[in-house]
Amino acid sequence: MRRSGKMKIAAALLLCSTVVLGACGSESSQNKETAKVTEAAGTAASTELAAGEPEKQEDGLTGELNIFVHVGSMDINPVIEKMQQENPDLKINLEMGSGTQYETVLKTKLSAGEAPDIMTVWPGSRTADYAAKGYLEKLTEEPWTARIPATINSEFSLEDDLYAMCFTVGGEGLIYNQDLFDQYNLSVPQNFDELLNVCETFQKNGVQPFASGYKDDWVIMRYTNSAFATLGYGREPDFDKKLASGELDFSYPGWVELFDKYGVLLDKHYFGDAILSTDSSQAIADFATGKTAMMIHTSSTISEIRKVSPDMKLGLTATPVNNAGEELYANWKSGLGFAVSSKSKNKEAAKRFLEIWADPEVNEALYHNNGEPTILNDVPSTGTDPALQDFYSKFVSTEKFALGAHDRWPAGMSNNWKKKLQEFVGRQINTEQMIDWLNEEYQSMK
Fold this sequence. Notes:
Oligomer: single chain
Largest sheet: 6 strands, mixed
Radius of gyration: 26 Å
Shape: globular
Strand content: 5-15%
Number of strands: 15
Distance between the termini: 46 Å
């Protein structure tokens, strides 16, 4: 849609008072300049019309663009600012939802027919559920899709159609203190036997091998996610499809081996004795101050460690649960994605927002400023921590990575799963009981 010059000026003046993208100046100077601009615009428009000439046309998107995102999303203001520069007649409304209530509010908006044009969604079964209900616009043919790894796109897809653009990613694996490894002349373990030897050396020297943080149940899943990348997806890439079809279940050897090896680490007290009374913050502090040598956690933890120990030599690698001679895979998974409402009245603007996000120059600056790795495979991961850059080059760039183990399970199952894992790490249940529970829970929620 196009607008006349006079309409454009009126819309621009309205935006100064309604869009939260910066003040338009002091009140006194603003009023004076407004009077001048309005008078000049009126005179120019009258002259054009009197001469019988058509009003001047301007290109650009118009109307409104409503954005509703989770507070954990990255700063999107640079994208909004560029979009506003391109389209001064477009009114952009940004709403941030609280971390705990965002999805509840989003579901209310969707069911009430008040969907935002752009929304934040989670990967796996949650995106698939929204797509199946017809809430999301297909994005399969958008130009940026080929620049995101297909494995990541699959987490935001339903029946081979893409419904969201992933914009946050992260690794989960073994974070280690290289200074402590050097002190005891240890090499970074490349398989499970080497990991056991490293743990034994640290423990004999009075250094707790692992930090836990398992008072926070979500931390426990960092082990299962990172371990199943190798023991599950590395051996059977189609495990999720075969699980859904009934061809496989959780008695799959990779799951059994995962819990058996976890049990070995737990029973040797390599995570310490306060495993369920230490939360994530304390675990990070213990690692950052050298009280523990390793932790199995998310890559985002690195920035928290740096706040305490900026000069620590640390690394991030895939959790070495593999057998000697077996390929090691890392866990590299999506966090959040942007989706477009299928009911949007301004789909052109919504899709242009995603295009701007994917613009190489905008994207590199955006992720550099946030100190995080980009998801786009043609944008350099500058600005990220050296440990994360090393992890990226070893596992992500070479596509030796897999996704989170629980993201494609039925919606809601992972919440129960986290609680059950606390029973396992507390050694209240064993591997066989864990496997039986997983099979029963999965079938009951399908």
